[in-house]
UniProtKB/TrEMBL annotation:
<dbReference type="InterPro" id="IPR011010">
    <property type="entry name" value="DNA_brk_join_enz"/>
</dbReference>
<dbReference type="GO" id="GO:0015074">
    <property type="term" value="P:DNA integration"/>
</dbReference>
<dbReference type="InterPro" id="IPR013762">
    <property type="entry name" value="Integrase-like_cat_sf"/>
</dbReference>
<dbReference type="InterPro" id="IPR050090">
    <property type="entry name" value="Tyrosine_recombinase_XerCD"/>
</dbReference>
<dbReference type="GO" id="GO:0006310">
    <property type="term" value="P:DNA recombination"/>
</dbReference>
<protein>
    <submittedName>
        <fullName>Site-specific integrase</fullName>
    </submittedName>
</protein>
<dbReference type="InterPro" id="IPR002104">
    <property type="entry name" value="Integrase_catalytic"/>
</dbReference>
<keyword id="KW-0229">DNA integration</keyword>
<keyword id="KW-0233">DNA recombination</keyword>
<dbReference type="Pfam" id="PF00589">
    <property type="entry name" value="Phage_integrase"/>
</dbReference>
<feature type="domain" description="Tyr recombinase">
    <location>
        <begin position="257"/>
        <end position="436"/>
    </location>
</feature>
<dbReference type="GO" id="GO:0003677">
    <property type="term" value="F:DNA binding"/>
</dbReference>
Length: 473
C-alpha cells in the first residue's frame, strides 16, 4: 500500500489520505486531472498536461513518472522536496561561553521561501528544536508563523505591562524565566508537563523549594490574563494541575520559619564598625539605618521610602507607602506606630531631600552584607532579621498584640506570629549606648557631602531620562 495525499473528490480514508493500491492509484492518475478531478478528456487544460494539486499550495506541474512503485512511506508533496536539513552553528559569546544556533531553511523552485533559526545555550536543545521543526514540516503540521509566539515572548509582554505596578522581586523572577532556553517554545506547547519540567530545571540550578515556588507563583497572574489580554488560550487549570503535582513531588514548598535574632554583642560589633565608617563624609550612616530598623521593624526598602511629609510627630506615626503585601504591591499605604527611639533617629537626619533617608536600598543592603562578612563570629545574619528582633523585642517589653501589629503593619496574627521569637521578658536594649549616638544630628561636613551627592544623582537621572526618550522616538 502507498500513502499519498488525496485531492478533491477522490475516495479517501484515514483522515484525508488515499490508501488504495498503487495500481488503482496509477490508473486514476492517468485518467484524472490533479486539480479539478475531472477526466482528462473533459479537463479545460488540454490533453497531455495536468494541473498542480491544490493541496500544499504547490504550483509546479508534475507527471505520473514522479512517483515510484517501491516505498510504503508517505510521498512528500513537491513543495516539501526542497527541505534542507537544519544546520547547527557554534559561536562564542562575549563571556566566552558557546551558543548554538539551529537554522531550518525551506526552498521552493530553488528559492528560499522560509528561514527560521533558534539560538540555545546547549547543543542538544538546538538539535531538539531543529528536529521538532523538521518533523512538524514533514508531518504537515508546521506553521510558517507561530500563532502566539514563544512562551518567553509572552512572559516579556506580561512583565512590561505590570512592571510599574509590582515589586522588583517579581520582575526579576519574570526576567529570569523569559531568559531561559526552556521557555523559548510555542505557547501551544505549554501544558502541565511543560510547567513541571520548567520547575525541575529551576530546582536543578540550585534553588530551594520555596524559591521555585515563588517563580511558579509569579506565573499564575499570566495564566489569569493571557486569553483576555493577549488572545492566547493558556489554561489556568493547567497551572493549577502542575502546582498540585509539584507540591506532591516536593519540588515546590513553603519557606522554613526563620527565627534568627542578632545577639547584643553582634550588634555592638556591627554598630562600632558602621559608626567608624560613617566618619567618611561620603559614607551612608549605616549605624543609624541599623538602629532605626531595630526601633521601628521597618524593611530596608520601606526605610528608604519614608518622606518628611509622612511623619506625624504628635501621634508618633509614619506613613509607610507601598507596604509589602501579597495581593497589593502598589498603593498599600499604611500608618504605623513609631517608638521613641525611631522618632529620635528621624529627627537627627538633615532635611536635604524629600526623603528622610535619601539612599538607595540596594546599596545599603550590599553595605550591610559586606559589614557582616567582616566578622567571623557573626554567621547567617540578614538585614531582615532586624525586623524579627524589633517585633520580638516589642512583645518582650509587654506590648499587646494589637499594638505590635500597629507598629509592624501586619494585618493578621498568623502572619505576625512568624516574626515572634521571645527569649525573656524586658527590654534588653534598655540603656544601650548606641541610642544616644544615633540620635545625634549629622555634622555639617556630612550634610554638605550628602547635598552634593544628591545633586549629582539628579543630573544623572535627568540625563538617563533624556536618553531614553530619544531612543523611543
Amino acid at each position: 500500500m502507498l500513502r499519498i495525499p488525496c485531492f478533491t473528490g477522490w475516495p479517501s480514508v484515514d483522515g484525508g489520505y488515499d490508501l488504495r493500491s498503487f495500481a488503482a492509484i496509477r490508473n486514476d492518475f492517468g485518467s484524472r486531472c490533479y486539480k479539478c478531478s475531472t477526466r482528462r478528456a473533459s479537463c479545460s487544460t488540454g490533453a497531455h498536461r495536468r494541473h498542480a494539486p491544490t493541496s500544499g499550495d504547490a504550483t509546479k506541474i508534475f507527471s505520473l513518472s514522479d512517483f515510484r512503485e517501491k516505498s510504503v512511506e508517505p510521498i512528500v508533496l513537491p513543495t516539501r522536496k526542497g527541505l534542507k536539513m537544519a544546520t547547527i552553528t557554534t559561536r562564542n559569546k562575549t563571556n566566552g561561553k558557546p551558543s548554538f544556533t539551529a537554522q531550518v531553511r525551506i526552498k521552493k523552485s530553488g528559492k528560499v521561501i522560509f528561514s527560521k533559526s533558534e539560538t540555545s545555550s546547549q547543543r542538544k536543545l538546538a538539535e531538539k528544536w531543529a528536529a521538532r521543526t523538521e518533523k512538524s514540516w514533514h508531518d504537515g503540521t508546521f506553521s510558517f508563523v507561530a500563532p502566539a509566539g514563544t512562551f518567553a515572548e509572552l512572559i516579556k509582554r506580561y512583565r512590561m505591562d505590570i512592571e510599574k505596578e509590582v515589586g522588583k522581586t517579581m520582575i526579576q523572577c519574570l526576567r529570569t524565566l523569559e531568559g531561559m532556553d526552556e521557555t523559548k517554545v510555542g505557547c501551544h506547547e505549554v501544558n502541565p508537563t511543560f510547567l513541571i519540567d520548567l520547575a525541575r530545571v529551576l530546582k536543578k540550578e540550585g534553588r530551594c523549594a520555596a524559591t521555585v515556588n515563588n517563580y511558579m507563583q509569579h506565573l499564575y497572574g499570566l495564566f489569569t490574563v493571557a486569553e483576555t489580554a493577549y488572545k492566547i488560550p493558556l489554561k489556568y487549570e493547567d497551572m493549577q494541575s502542575a502546582m498540585r503535582t509539584l507540591r506532591r513531588l516536593k519540588i515546590v514548598g513553603k519557606a522554613n520559619k526563620r527565627d534568627r535574632r542578632p545577639k547584643l554583642q553582634e550588634l555592638n560589633d556591627l554598630m562600632e564598625e558602621a559608626f567608624a565608617r560613617s566618619a567618611r563624609s561620603n559614607a551612608a550612616p549605616l549605624h543609624k539605618i541599623i538602629a532605626f530598623a531595630i526601633a521601628s521593624s521597618r524593611r530596608l526598602s520601606e526605610i528608604t521610602r519614608i518622606r518628611w511629609d509622612d511623619v506625624n510627630y504628635a501621634d508618633k506615626k509614619v506613613l509607610v507607602r507601598d507596604m509589602k503585601h501579597p495581593g497589593q504591591k502598589k498603593g498599600n499605604d499604611v500608618w504605623v506606630l513609631l517608638s521613641d527611639e525611631a522618632l529620635q533617629i528621624i529627627m537627627s537626619m538633615p532635611k536635604v531631600d524629600d526623603k528622610v533617608f535619601p539612599y538607595v536600598s540596594d546599596s545599603l543592603s550590599t553595605a550591610f552584607t559586606r559589614l557582616v562578612e567582616l566578622f567571623e563570629n557573626i554567621e547567617d545574619l540578614h538585614f531582615h532579621d532586624l525586623r524579627h528582633e524589633a517585633i520580638s523585642r516589642a512583645f518582650e517589653m509587654g506590648w499587646s498584640a494589637a499594638k505590635v501589629r500597629m507598629m509592624s503593619g501586619h494585618r493578621s496574627w498568623s502572619s505576625l506570629e512568624i516574626y515572634t521569637n521571645l527569649e525573656k521578658i524586658g527590654d534588653r536594649f534598655e540603656g544601650w549606648k548606641w541610642w544616644d549616638v544615633v540620635s545625634q544630628p549629622e555634622t555639617q561636613e556630612r550634610v554638605d557631602a550628602l547635598k552634593k551627592r544628591l545633586a549629582a544623582r539628579k543630573v544623572k537621572t535627568a540625563a538617563c531620562s533624556t536618553k531614553t526618550k530619544k531612543s523611543t522616538k
